[in-house]
Amino acid sequence: MARGALYRVPFRRRRMGLTNYKLRRGLLLSRKPLLVLRKTNMHIIAQLVKPRPQGDEVLASATSMELRRGYGWKASCKNSSAAYLTGYLLGVKASKLGIKEAVLNLGLHRPVKGSTLFAALKGALDAGLEIPHSEEILPSEDRIRGKHVEEYATRLASEDPELYAKRFSGYLARGLKPEELTKHFEKVLAKIKEATKTL
């Protein structure tokens, strides 16, 4: 650990690896709500947050578990398709509150091109939120709709049925064939659009 008369101990959350204060300061200067996107081992979390001196205020939030409970989502709650739908759901909630723009905050997640969190960003954009971004970071439409999962599942089912049943046990247990993920995605997206008309 560094020592000396001029050494300053970093803030606790910086020491714990929870907050990048330099990045946060830059985001706060925009004076816009923050679109906070986080990924856990099981879920995607999206929130619209208004920073305040006494503590951040959550204006709206959506999680991928809402997709399962409210809209019949049967696939994984942490893949690109679930992330897009979660971002879209948050974007619709934001528009109902009159929020039209935000600034993206990924926290300490690395900004990897085409990643799951950028799928959530795409969902929020498609729902009408204006968020500064570069088009090249967003995942392709095929990836968002789960086309790559369908292709892999179809190939695996013919080559190794035992591994197929193991890899997609969660999908199959919930009554979804992974080869039909795109169709299921479209169905759930339509449900969200229909349901959120009354939000």
CA distance, first residue to last residue: 52 Å
- In this structure, how is the largest beta sheet organized? 4 strands, mixed
Strand order of the largest sheet: 3-2-1-4
Structure summary, number of beta strands? 4
Output mean pLDDT: 90
Descriptive report:
Strands 3-2-1-4 form a 4-stranded mixed beta sheet, with helices on both faces. The longest helix is centred in the middle third of the chain and has 17 residues, at 80-96. The termini are far apart. By secondary structure, it is α+β, with helices and mostly antiparallel strands. It has a single domain (18-198), classed as Nucleotidyltransferase, domain 5, CATH 3.30.420.100. It has helices spanning 12-15, 21-28, 64-71, 80-96, 116-126, 141-144, 147-159, 161-167, 169-173, 181-195; strands at 34-39, 44-50, 57-63, 103-105. Helix 4 runs parallel beside helix 5 (116-126).
SSE layout:
Blueprint: H1 12-15, H2 21-28, E1 34-39, E2 44-50, E3 57-63, H3 64-71, H4 80-96, E4 103-105, H5 116-126, H6 141-144, H7 147-159, H8 161-167, H9 169-173, H10 181-195
Parallel strand pairs: 1-4
Antiparallel strand pairs: 1-2, 2-3
Helix pairs in contact: 4-5, 4-10, 7-8
